[in-house]
Predict the 3D structure of the following.
Amino acid sequence: MTQPSLQFLGVGREEEDAYRRLLRDGATNPDQVVADVSAETADQLVELGIATRTHTGSLRPVPPARAVERLIERRLDRLRGELEDAAEADGIVDSLRAEREAVTALPSAPSEAPTVQQIEGMEAVRAVIDELTFFARTESLTTNPGGIITPESADFSRPIDLRILRRGVRMRTLMAAPALDDPTTLSYLRELAAKGAEIRISHQPLERMIICDRAAALTPIDPADTSKGALLTREPGLVATLVTLFDRMWAMAQELPAQDDDLPTEIERRILRTLYAADKDESGARDLGISVRTYRKHVASLMTRLQATNRFQAALLARERGWF
């Protein structure tokens, strides 16, 4: 019977052979395995996320179930990105939008859209938000003046937000202070923060807005009644002014507090554990399935809170406090 292969998950024969050998012999003779594997293959194992490097330079295999899970996630992320890019290049969204009877309720293609467009009705506004974020490639800025995210809103926003973060788009979200007193909102915000979103809490009044790639902005027609609809603008001057306003509100806001006052969140506990095993940020981030930027942001925050001068000391101090 033919042995199952990892090739369908994007792993070459040489890399798979090396990984299988790590599983067989890595625990007893890791140095010999490293010596027999080319540097290029070793780097590829780490890049694929199926092996990690120790502080001595040895390779350590990721457990099989986790390794296959990472390979599947890697392939899905790549396929998702290819499909989204193809959809954007093909203009399929615009083509399908043209079939709708209420075509005026949705934004036209950027080249045909008026400077400011009025979007009426919550259903139409949600459709616009979905489309704007679908095409976001660099940055997404959002405010929530009420500070509360209902379970229904979280269910609507989750696939959109995770799609943005999965593509590596920088997400900055400003929440009003009531968010701190609402368990559902806090849980959702921490879920996003663990995936790389930057979230701050404002104790000052916020203006409601969504800005994508500093190229398009959505604001309410009536800030006191968002059900009336929204205004969509792509006019560079107006968008730039709204970005400036957002940056000012962001500068006055505070970081989202850790769960249970100063106790670390679950993702922070996992990061502290990797400080013992991973000698590089890339390895630690890969082990946790987050971006290197997010990993470094958490490490810097932990070092500040622990008043540690280096990462190893941060791990020691955290263990002394019983954080992990």
